[in-house]
Amino acid sequence: MHLGNYLGAVKGFLELEKTGKYETVYCVVDVHSITTPYDKNALAKNKREIIIDYLAAGLDPKKSIIIYQSDIPEHIELAFYFSTVETIARMMHLPTYKEKVKQHPNANTMALLNYPILMAADILIYKAGLVPVGIDQEPHLEVAREIARKMNQQYGTNFPEPVRFATKGEYIPSLTGEGKMSKTVANSFINLTDSLEEIRKKIRSVPTATTAGGEMSPGLKSLFTFANLFLPAVTDRYKKEYNDGTLQFVKIKDAIAEAILAELKPFQERRAKIATDKKYVDGVIRDGADRARKIARETVREVKEKMGLI
């Protein structure tokens, strides 16, 4: 994971878990990752790294269910049943689908077209009413709500209509100054395992200006967003210096880099320890799959019965 994942998603996951108000399921969506071109040799390693990241960040496998999507084949089965109530035209009009086709014109597959239907299955198989995702996922959540309504109306199922659960700091800007931090955009992200030297180099690369003052560029806005996140006590002083024309960009950049490392250091130490404990990580994955499948099997059984398959 990168810093945007950590601040925009995982910190929110931890807040949800700590409230004790919700049953929480966190899914590494490895099946979704194969809907566009990918490196099959890296997939197994990368998805395990995400589980380790979750554990190092503080997710408690006793309080939450932590799973690989591919370990729960009922997700795929339910997605097929859901596909009977959605049209091809509806899927093709989704802006996310159109964007992906532009990015991968030679990989316009049925898997890509059905991505939102599988996402609906990921959510509704657990009868989840709240989904902690960013605003960019709202079109997919609307598909999940449509499917819930159609299944309930046509077959008498009892799916909730899931809504987005907004968490603090959900939008983390790219280091390039354009869009959000993303692994798919070169030079836009900070890895959670980066050293101070690596973080400093990346933060120093944020495009700013030759002199302080005047209207802020996109890069400067990103820089001050990071200042607000990691240096809230002194951000106003930096803004005053900027407006006065006295701010030294390297000074604020290096201060942000050091503050980011201070935030990540405990995570990095926990992660190094967990990564060496293969037995523990394997146990978490196995236990999560067992618990999730008990729920998933029951949902699929209900759907098959309502649809007349059993």
TrEMBL record:
Gene3D superfamilies xref list: HUPs, Tyrosyl-Transfer RNA Synthetase
EC number(s) stated in the UniProt entry for this protein: 6.1.1.2
UniProt GO BP: tryptophanyl-tRNA aminoacylation
GO cellular component: cytoplasm
SUPFAM superfamilies noted in UniProt: Nucleotidylyl transferase (SSF52374)
Keyword terms, alphabetized: Aminoacyl-tRNA synthetase, ATP-binding, Ligase, Nucleotide-binding, Protein biosynthesis
Pfam family, one: tRNA-synt_1b
GO molecular function, one term: ATP binding
Listed InterPro entries: aa-tRNA-synth_Ic, Rossmann-like_a/b/a_fold, Trp-tRNA-ligase, Trp-tRNA_synthetase
NCBIfam families, per database record: trpS
Family: Belongs to the class-I aminoacyl-tRNA synthetase family.
Official protein name in the record: Tryptophan--tRNA ligase
Species in which this protein is naturally found: Candidatus Roizmanbacteria bacterium GW2011_GWA2_35_19
